[in-house]
Amino acid sequence: MTRATLKDVAAHAGVSHQTVSNVLNGHPSIRPATRERVLSSISALDYHPNQAAKALREARVTTLCFASFGHDPDTLSDPYRNLIQAALTAEANAHGYSLATAFLDHGAASLEDLRQRYLQRVIGGAVIIGTQLRAAQWERITSWGLNVVLLDHLLPAPAHTVSADYRGGMAALVAHHVSRGRRDLALVLPTGDYGSTAMMRRDAFFEAAQACGVRARHVDGDWTYAAGERAVRELHAAGDLPDALLGGNDRMATGALSAAHRLGLSVPGDLAVSGFDDFDFVQYLHPTLTTVRVPHAEMAREAMRHLIALTGGEAPQAPAPYPVSLIVRDSA
Amino acid sequence: MTRATLKDVAAHAGVSHQTVSNVLNGHPSIRPATRERVLSSISALDYHPNQAAKALREARVTTLCFASFGHDPDTLSDPYRNLIQAALTAEANAHGYSLATAFLDHGAASLEDLRQRYLQRVIGGAVIIGTQLRAAQWERITSWGLNVVLLDHLLPAPAHTVSADYRGGMAALVAHHVSRGRRDLALVLPTGDYGSTAMMRRDAFFEAAQACGVRARHVDGDWTYAAGERAVRELHAAGDLPDALLGGNDRMATGALSAAHRLGLSVPGDLAVSGFDDFDFVQYLHPTLTTVRVPHAEMAREAMRHLIALTGGEAPQAPAPYPVSLIVRDSA
DNA sequence: ATGAAAGCGCTAACAT
DNA sequence: ATGTTAGCGCTTTCAT
């Protein structure tokens, strides 16, 4: 079945193809009668504009990209990604853009792939989840000229970033643990590259703990369930278990809970455990998880709006960090 | 910065633009010397073909679509979606296609959106997760002429489906529960529409239970954590708790575990709990979850290969159901 | 083995 | 208010 083109509609309505185009693009100075005739021809022929032709002629790209890290199933299946993807897709579609996906890693090939898609006009911009992005990679990407908005990353302008008030969230969390009598806090987070919010949260953690006069330590962990479990097991094996373990995300907190169960530790009796994100499933853990809620979906929508503005040549204002909130449940 | 076109490369190499095109598309009858010259011009000018122009001229679409259900965070954040999306993306990119995403629901708008994208030549085909697809929706989609491959759905040809051996998996699972002394099994699954694998698994469940001579019942649940929790709570409230609860997926099993904890039931002592999927996080539940592993990623790759073949005008053979395997852990 | 001409479906610029 | 001409960047067809 060969689909109708502008010309077919024009012939059917007895006007020039340009008039049809004008009607479609809402141009002024079209006689109502003509407009009516064109519109009825359009629906009679079930005409739909060819986006490829439009894109070529207008020299603009109608696909944007969502890039995130993770090849292993554990990282891939982080609910975080899904929520963000859904929000980005909805926002992009609402503005007439399609959203493609890219999965990055720390090798050269995945970045090269993204660059190819940019140079071939397949994608016009990208929202990148920054949590695992390394400084060198960021520099490469910016050197291409691709419009990029970073989620969960904090870099000075001219970078475009959307982030949450992790500093405030961490301060509230530490205060909560201390108010419950905890005096020896361990935070599991990746070491973090320049601009990473992990770095910022770690700093906020130490500041807050120091202000409260309690012991604070940092344990390295790469966001996975396994990392949370390992952290607790190693601290326990070293005979230096803290009285509160702060997971840098809900997955690591889940792993920590699991390790506590296996070691026969009671939570929160022997060890308080908290997370960061507030994903759905943490209400179904045992015990239910105390965590910091981060408005990932709203942040993603803002990032997409920002990207679309950039793509349209605007210079949108940097959004303020999004407020987070402490959700107290049973684990801490 | 304006990017190089075929003409620019041609001028730089001192040949016609057509010759450059021939070199790029690996046409025969190009003198090695010419070819060399063209290639060096290409890299000198950092030329990259414009996909929009190519797509227009070749009248083909280079973007495929991944469509799945779910607007609520619980469904959205099912790890299932992520694993499948990553596999589909990798396979699509490997074949030179981009992958867009669509989120469907049971309203008319989301399907209309998909249809628009098809008619506007934005997407050339789709892989759809069938678990929540209704018969009426499926009929609408097929009426368009869009190439579609269904994941986790079972419809007779000419539908294209990729599925797993759920029947065999269910039989093995029931046999396992019975071998551990269970005599009263409850399965939580949606009621399921025509072609849904939920329907097939439910049938297999009753057949297997009957063959073993044990009691079997079906409880309605919509794949969410909340549904699993509700199932256990309601059975318990009714004073007719089974001795094994089979979650139709890992999320519902997780919810069931949570309910058991809150009701003070020991697992697997008072109640055995099993899942279906084998996602990463079920190893971190307490107790660890006995489940049936489904090779979602491999199935997704096969679905994408199938779709790409369809898009290329081939008539690929229907793949056999993928084998599943019982993973015994602590919960059953 | 290479070049010239035509046109995919659309919009921008100009003419009427 | 509408029609005509030109061309986005590429590939297909046909000449040379």
Automatic annotation (TrEMBL), chains A, B:
Coiled coil: none annotated. Pfam families: LacI, Peripla_BP_3. InterPro entries: HTH_LacI, LacI/GalR-like_sensor, Lambda_DNA-bd_dom_sf, Peripla_BP_I. Keywords: DNA-binding, Transcription, Transcription regulation. Transmembrane segments: none annotated. GO terms for molecular function: DNA binding. Residues 4-58 form the HTH lacI-type domain. This is LacI family DNA-binding transcriptional regulator. It comes from Deinococcus petrolearius.
